[in-house]
């Protein structure tokens, strides 16, 4: 292979560093890769398969663009395992700063005043009762609880609150237990650092000799085979010793793509608890709790107005309350219903209505000129089955309904039919396939995007 000048290679590295940042460049590239360019491709030497998979999945676009900028034309990217780099990475000291560990000490609190993440401050209702009960049971009797306990739900629905509450309560009520709480990204960073510094044994002792391991955002594992394998071994080793695992995830494990089936099976082997958006009474109670914490005099008509108009999650409720409090202080206005309506007009304009299966079914019938009764029948005609397949896919994507609930709403389909439709559409999108809808042929991806625009979700 004929290499170009070292200046060009240095410029490629500088472009990559500029694109991904110095810290990530030092962690993944500096001392760990060897770049060579010829007329056909940019070849990147890496120390092992794990590095190759990580660079391919996380930085390939940035690498390709960096090479194009320097060379002046697009270049294919090839990765090559170079054993000499592996030997060097074992001998060298780590150059990246150590990943920050979550603080062990809890912030000082006034006597008798619960912390922000105390379980007592978690407002309980039908949408989150199972997750709350499972968390409470774990706190009360860690030795006998389900493991893993996996709590899943969208952003701002209380996953982090519950996980932090479990950690805090275990530390306070079971001081003899060894508890570690961290995000999945922190777990990954600490594993990578341990691997680079030849301290894997130390890392594994740390995470596998615990009584309770709490990991948030496990969807971070998607597409990362090396980390998935390490995480699976960690779960198996920890639970073989009688340890417990608590996990947080954005979606049900069955909906995670590009994840090892063995790991997926481990995730659902214990207790899976779902968090749904709060109902109106819960939203009212959340607003009362938040207002009391801030010593805000929030009238019931204002609470009702906010609860009726902000429905998506707790974070948006709290954000609206923050803005309203700041607005009243700045404008020296009284906190009444008229003020709330005026202050929050911009926030409310951007509120996205909550979708239900019936909403999506109605839109599908409008788009493809179908009789609503027909789409609920088990017809195998393409005119019906193709729109129904997209409807099932989008109902799963944009509503909080379970597979069984979606199937029941669309003509009494069983949950496996909904799962099959979701998987088929996902595969068709990935393979850029076409589908016949009405009187025309669509790219599946284009049909989905058009459908999403009609739903106000594009």
TrEMBL record:
Could you tell me which PANTHER family the record lists for this protein?
CHROMOSOMAL REPLICATION INITIATOR PROTEIN DNAA
**Location of the region described as Disordered in the Swiss-Prot/TrEMBL record:** 90-113
- Domain notes from UniProt: Domain I is involved in oligomerization and binding regulators, domain II is flexibile and of varying length in different bacteria, domain III forms the AAA+ region, while domain IV binds dsDNA.
Assembly, per entry: Oligomerizes as a right-handed, spiral filament on DNA at oriC.
What is this protein's record name?
Answer: Chromosomal replication initiator protein DnaA
Q: Which GO terms describe its molecular function?
A: ATP binding; DNA replication origin binding; lipid binding
Family the UniProt entry places it in: Belongs to the DnaA family.
Q: State its role.
A: Plays an essential role in the initiation and regulation of chromosomal replication. ATP-DnaA binds to the origin of replication (oriC) to initiate formation of the DNA replication initiation complex once per cell cycle. Binds the DnaA box (a 9 base pair repeat at the origin) and separates the double-stranded (ds)DNA. Forms a right-handed helical filament on oriC DNA; dsDNA binds to the exterior of the filament while single-stranded (ss)DNA is stabiized in the filament's interior.
Superkingdom of the source?
Bacteria
**Originating organism:** Kolteria novifilia
Stretches for region Domain III, AAA+ region: 112-328
Task: Read off the CDD domains from this record.
Answer: AAA, Bac_DnaA_C
- Species lineage, top-down? Bacteria, Pseudomonadati, Planctomycetota, Planctomycetia, Kolteriales
Residues noted as binding ATP in the record, renumbered to the chain: 156, 158-160
Sequence ranges assigned to domain AAA+ ATPase in this UniProt record:
145-275
Sequence segments annotated as region (Domain I, interacts with DnaA modulators): 1-97
- Per UniProt, residues of the Chromosomal replication initiator DnaA C-terminal domain are 356-425
Any one of the GO CC terms: plasma membrane
Instruction: Please state where this protein is localized.
Output: Cytoplasm
Task: Identify the gene encoding this protein.
Answer: dnaA_2
- Pfam families per UniProt: Bac_DnaA (PF00308), Bac_DnaA_C (PF08299), DnaA_N (PF11638)
| Keywords, sorted A to Z | ATP-binding, Cytoplasm, DNA replication, DNA-binding, Lipid-binding, Nucleotide-binding
Primary localization class, coarse: cytoplasm
Region annotated Domain IV, binds dsDNA, chain positions: 329-458
GO BP terms: DNA replication initiation; regulation of DNA replication
